[in-house]
Each structure stands twice: as C-alpha cells, then as structure tokens.
Amino acid sequence: MPGRVVLEVTQGPLKGEIFTFDKHDVFLFGRGVDCHARLPEADPTVSRHHFLLEVNPPRIRIRDLGSLNGTHVNDRKHGGRSQDESPDAAGKRRYTEVEIKHGDRIRVGQTVFQISVHMPVVCSRCGKEADEKTQSMRRLKDGSLICAECLSKGKEAAARKAERRALKAQPTRVVDPSRVPSPVMKPEPTLPRAVVGEQADDEQLATLPEEPQPAGPVDRPDFPGYVVSGLLGRGGVGPVYLAIRAKDGSKVAIKIMLPRVAVDEKTRKTFLREMAVTAQLKHPNVVELFDQGALGDRFYFVMEYCPGGSVEELMRKRGGKLSVEEAAPIMLQTLEGMAYVHEKGFVHRDLKPRNILLSLEAGLRAKISDLGTSKNFQEAGLSGMTVTGAAEGTPMYMPKEQLLNFKYVEPVSDVWALAATFYEMLTGQFTRDIRKGESPIAVVLKRGVVPIRDREESIPEDLARVIDGALAEDKRARPQTAGEFLVRLREVL
Questions:
Q1: How far apart are CA 488 and CA 484, in angstroms?
Q2: What is the distance of C-alpha 251 from the center of its chain?
Q3: Which of 87, 114, 233, 319 is the most exposed place for a label (fewest CB within 10 A)?
Q4: Following DSSP, what letter does each residue of 443-461 receive, concatenated?
Q5: pLDDT at position 351, please?
Q6: For 12-49, what is each residue's pLDDT tens digit?
Q7: How far is it, in rounded angstroms, from Cα 205 to Cα 214?
Q8: Bigger pLDDT: 283 or 407?
C-alpha cells in the first residue's frame, strides 16, 4: 500500500530541512560525508555514523550505531556508550533498535526530527483510493475500509446468495405442467446504492463476501496442479517445498513468500505482474520460474528444482570452504548467468552462497535463484524491514553504496556481492571482520574489506587481484557488470 513518511527538522543546525520517503529506503544521520543528513564536523554531540533509520511506509525503525551520546526518541535515550567503550562494543547492544510511529520525535544533541506518517485511504477489496473531497469509504466490522462501489456489489451478491438459499429451502412439489399459468414478468427489485459518507449497518456488513484469509501453517499445502511431497527448507521469507507437477510428473520447487505487511489487491497485482516480467528471463545458469500465484496473503512461485542444493550447503559439506579447483566452474557459471541478467537490464540485489543453487544436469551446474523476488518484494513494500531486520550475515554481502543508496541498486553492486560470495567460497569467511554480537550494519559502514590472501595465502595472486578489485569500495574501480567481471576472471582461471 503506497504511503509517505516525512522527517522534518524542527530544531538545530538543519532546522527547516524536510526528508520525504514514499518507498522502502534507509536514512543515515551523523557527521560523516556519506550521511544523508550531515551535521558539522565540529559538533561533539553527534558521532560520524550516529543512527540509521529504515523506512517502509508506514513502518519506521531506528538503530543507534554505537554513538557516544545515544539517540533520544520522545526524550527516552537509546544506545550511547561510556568514554572508555568503543563504538563497536556499544553497537552490539540489541536494544538500540526502536520502532517509530506517527508523531514521534528523534533528538540527537540540538537536532530534533518530527516524524509524520501519511497513508492513503484505500478500499480493501479493489485497492482504489478514496476521493479526496468525499472520502467515500465505509468501515467494516473487522476495521477494514470498503468503497461505495464494492459495498454495492457486495450487497447485490449477498442478496442473490440469500435468494438462492431461500429457493433451496422450499419443499419440492410435483405439479401438473398443464395447470401452471403463464409467468408474469416483474422487474427485479433493486437495492439502494450506498450514500457517500453513510455508515453501512451491521446486517449489511455481515452479508458481504469475506476477503480471503491467509492460510495457516500446514505441512503440505495445496497448490493447483502440483502435489507437495516434502519440505526442502525455510528461507528468510517463507518455506520451500518439493513437489510433483501433475501434468508431466516432473519435480519442481515451490517457494512461499509471506508478506510482512497487509496486502491490498492493487499491490498484489503489481507484484505478480513484475514477477511475470522477471520470469521471461531464460538462461542455463538462472533458475527457471514456471508458475506463480497467490493463496490469500501468501505468494507462491513454482521453480526449477536443483537437487544439488546450494553453494552454502556444499561449503558446509566441505568443512566451510571450497578449493579453487571446485569453486572455479561455479564462479564462472554464476557470472555467465548474471552477465545475461545484467544485459537484460535487471539487477539481483541479494546475491550470496545460499542463492546459488546446483543442478546435476550434465554434471554440476550453478544456477542463480531468487532473481527478482527480493527486489520486487521490496519495491512493492511487502518485505518488512530488510536492513535493520535482516538476518545477521545478510548485510555482509552488501557493498557500502547499497546501504547508502538503497532504492537505486545498480549492476556494479551485484558485482561486489558476487565477489563477496566467491571470497567466502574460497576462505570460509566474510570480506569484513565481524565479531560475535556486532551489528553488521555498523561493520558495513565503518570497516573495510580484508584482502583475500590475508585470509587464505594459498589463493593464486592473479585470482586474488581480480577478486579484491571487484570488492573495491569505490564502485568506479570495479568491473561495472557481471560480464566485465567474467572476462577478468576467465583470464586468471
């Protein structure tokens, strides 16, 4: 559901500045040159990276990044550290994440942000926004809103249903056809249309068709045309099932995506339309998307089944990392798939060892999974909080610019994530040092990449140079697409 979050600076050096968010985005505040709102370097009350705000209208969440003086929400202090405590140590505290709502105030030193949330009035049935002048919506018993047109349709449908029920309840009689008089045609009674602004009464509301409800968790959900045979695993947004396609008996994987927010019909259609566009991508190194649909508030995607599991699972089987000889074909095939994706104008946004699957057709073949799902889910506003609420390791596959320029991820950011994935395949470690309990967000913002040969000396120097180059903090110094990265990697493998 579209909406808008506004941050207005009401006090301090930035007084009068307004920051508006109408899509999922992040906002970094502090003294650093990379901050979205930056205070003077000499201000002693503000840290270089003071807090990160994640916005996914209408939700807002703030995380103090180990600042010295803490972040105040409605005059309550969150975070902060003692003079002898490091920012990293302070950043480990989990309680520094706070949900923000309409009307809240955020204060850091002399700077005060006033938060306001603006959400449109939308029909829960058709997704249409209310007319600004008349606000022609009715509120149902469950609290949802319905427009006059859908209310009228609901009444008519309820009336027809009641009529059919009454006819079924009448006793059946055997009648001599010759004695039945000719029917007299009478106009059907018309139901009065709802008046704008009028509250629908309880009896009318009770007879309206119910909105489909999300199905509860079950071991083997039903999907039209497929027979579920077992659970393959659980990802960050839902389970993945192994199933048999009824029409030909082939094995497929069915992924469930559970939205973190309420889904209106307009958003549902938009997301499925974007996924249908993504499904047109066909390449031997990209997991094929066969089918898609929705069950209540749950989306499902029928995909090619890869019996070899993921690169993450293969690494575990090998003791945490892979040899250059085993990793090389996987790296090259992955880049071939992503080169095709970038040529078609798409970005992945969520590349990591878990999202590279292994098919066993004609030997081991790498296939990129989850193409489009992460990006489209986020852009539709269905993903909830994916930065402050991310799994601990997920930000470690993000280049710094992806965190700072969250809405506009480019192919060059995918290149960094691919290099970070290859780095982990060969070393069994993340690109940046991160200690147990540390905030990965703070690590991405404050800490550089460790050269790969510092992790594993046995990696050939030419290969190390290519991977380190693709992990450059300055995105202009990296290969700009997976195709360019592929050319450089082929030269050293």
A1: 7
A2: 27
A3: 319
A4: HHHH--PPPHHHH-TTS-H
A5: 94
A6: 999 999 999 988 889 999 999 899 999 877 778 898 89
A7: 21
A8: 283
137 or 322, higher pLDDT: 322
Pick the more confident residue, 391 or 488: 488
Both tokens of 12, joined, read 């301090």
| Per-residue pLDDT tens over the stretch 314-370 | 999 999 999 999 999 999 999 999 999 999 998 998 899 999 999 987 778 999 998
Residue 450: Cβ within 10 Å count: 17
Q: Looking at residue 375, what is its pLDDT?
A: 65
First to last CA, the chain: 48
SS3 of residue 107 by DSSP: strand
Q: What is the DSSP string of 198-239?
A: PPPPHHHHHTSPPPPPPPPP-SS--BTTEEEEEEEEE-SSSE
Q: At residue 115, what is the residue type?
A: I
Sign of CA dihedral 409, 410, 415, 416: negative
Which residue, 293, 267, 290, 268, is CA-closest to 279? 290
Q: What is the DSSP string of 55-106?
A: EETTEEEEEE-S-SS-EEETTEEE----TTS-HHHHHT-GGGEEEE-TT-EE
pLDDT at 216: 39
CA 253, CA 290: separation in Å to the nearest integer?
10
**pLDDT value at residue 492:** 96
pLDDT at 179 over 80: no
CB 152 within 8 A of CB 193: yes
Give the tokens for residue 438: 């540390």
Q: Which of 340, 445, 461, 449 is nearest to 403 (CA)?
A: 445
Distances (CA, A) of 391 to 110, 324, 358, 394: 34, 28, 23, 6
3-state SS class at 349:
coil
User: Which residues form the catalytic set?
Assistant: 350
Answer whether residue 275 shows pLDDT above 50.
yes
Contacts of 439 (CB under 8 A, 6+ apart): 63, 65, 66, 91, 92
- The answer to whether residues 139 and 28 touch, using CB atoms and an 8 Å cutoff, is no
Question: What is the token pair recorded at 400?
Answer: 């710094």
Give exposure, 431-443, as e/b (b: 16+ Cβ within 10 Å). bbebeeebbbbbb
pLDDT (mean) for 52-70: 88
The Cα 233–Cα 238 span in angstroms is: 9
- Alpha-carbon distance of 216 to 423, in angstroms, equals 40
Q: For the purposes of burial, counting CB atoms within 10 Å of the CB of 284, is it exposed (0-12), middle (13-18) or buried (19 or more)?
A: middle
Q: How confident is the model at residue 442 (pLDDT cuts 50, 70, 90)?
A: confident
